[in-house]
Amino acid sequence: MTAAAIDEAARRELPRRAGFALSQRQAWGLLFVAPYMAIFLGFVVFPVGYAFWLARDPQLYVQLANDPIFLRTVVNTLVFLVVAINVKMVIALFLSGFFTHKRWWVKVLAVLFVLPWAVPSIPTIISVRFMLNPEWGVINTLIFSLTGDDGPNWLNDPILALSLSMVVHIWKSLPFWTLILLAGRLAIPGEIYEAASVDGAGAWHRFRYITWPSISTLYVTCTLLSMIFTVGDFNSVYLLTGGGPADLTHVLATLGIRYLRLDQLGMAMASIVCALPLILPLVYFMMKRLSR
Amino acid sequence: MTRSKLMRGVSTEAGLLLVGIPVLLWTLIPIYHMFLFAISPKDAAFSGQLWPAHPTLRNFEIVFGQKHHFLYHFWRQMWNSLAISCATAVLTLMIASAAAFAISRLRMKGGRLVMNLALFTYFIPAAFLAVPMYKTMGMYGLLNNDWALILAMVTVASPYAIWILRQASDKLPVELDEAALIDGASPFQLFRLVYIPLMVPSLIAVGTYALLLAWNEYLYAFLLLSRETAITLPVALGNFLSADDSPWELLMTAGFIYALPPAAIYYAFRRYMSSGLTAGAVKG
Lengths: 292, 284
Description:
By secondary structure, chain A is mainly alpha-helical. In chain A, 79% of the residues lie in helices and 0% in strands. Chain A has two domains: 1-54, no CATH class; 58-290, MetI-like (MetI-like fold), CATH 1.10.3720.10. Chain A has 14 helices and no strands. Chain B is mostly helical. In chain B, 76% of the residues lie in helices and 0% in strands. Chain B contains 13 helices and no strands. The model of chain B is unreliable at 280-284 (pLDDT under 50). At the A-B interface, helix 1, helix 2, helix 5, helix 6 and helix 7 of A face helix 1, helix 3, helix 4, helix 5 and helix 6 of B.
């Protein structure tokens, strides 16, 4: 019998030993979860149910399919998810290795590195937006002073603008995932590395045969979690490009809000319902992993 | 032998610097750019210099004195942000700690279901829930009311809070409850006198998380609040963007001021944050 199982058994016996009626315990339990359940019913179940009710008309989906902006948005969202997240996670994996080095300046850098994640997105994203201003932004000023040519009109080109949204997204959320992967790396006992070094294993072999097998599960979990979160990333796109130029850089997170602002509530809900086949499998998979 | 070792040491350091310097620049440039705007006189911020020729605190004076028509309600909006994030943190802590207590310590029937419902909510992208949430708040008559944003943020924050608190409270020894109950404590006394004091480190982490989440929130704030005196600071900053004659240097100054408290709070509670919050994620 493991320690956990003993613990478990003790827990079950608790009510009897303490002379504490189970039904009473259950009543207290219900009382304690009641506030959360009230929030859940009022602000999750009701809105979601209402959303499905609004999105029930099949005609809406025909309309959506005929809206070129919607199709573009779906493609943008998929590109955003596949490119931005994989680039981010690979960089995070690499940098988490960098931050394991014990130097005073690496420690200082690790503290500063968290800033993008710790500060709110609106001022920093607007700051990036100003840097990219074609006329007086610092980037084009620099390009002009170095080459004498005008720089590109960054946010006026849909591909460039969407790529820059991904850069902003990576800038903002890279620290978080790097720290998580760093924690995963630090949990690996140092003796294993020492033993491998004695045996003459190089950096690549140490990564390939020690680090990666230990953190690959964590890496996959993080990638999936990041996907779920990124589907809902409204700020990186909306604050940088506003969905423009010509509504060509929307993602599903900003498109719903666009329809809402145009007073096309049904379309807003329908576009979100269309995203469910993308999200629900991920959510199901994550729930199985996390609820143990 | 020693020479090759030395050479290898030097190349390791060089390699580390080769990574470290770009990381430092990448991290700080957007923030430094914002700071540069804040300390530059009007129109001088665009020159592309590393340090302004005439640094000034004039922008801060204008923002703090509310001396521009974009900023007439600066302090009011700052207060809204503060009140809403504090209320969110307090409510989230109460609701989530009670729920975690019921699930983890009282082992109530259906606790697992509640946990799964909460986790499921955690995985609904916030931008998707925002649209129906906006309509629902309208039905409840809460639009333009602080409570709309507070309740929305509690809804978003509490699932993760419950999950983190449940994991932390599963680690508390069961004998504690036993002893308290034998001594005749009611579950409420157990909660207040035994459970809460033991959970303080995790509660700090979760409270900070909820506080920062609400302070930083833009989307829900801009949907649910629109009156000049009701909006929070991020919404006011967003409104700058939609105008043509925006004073950029003041926008960046106000943004800089707005970004300082969360950074300070994060660093103050970093110890709790990293142990409390990453523990949950690493477990998977």
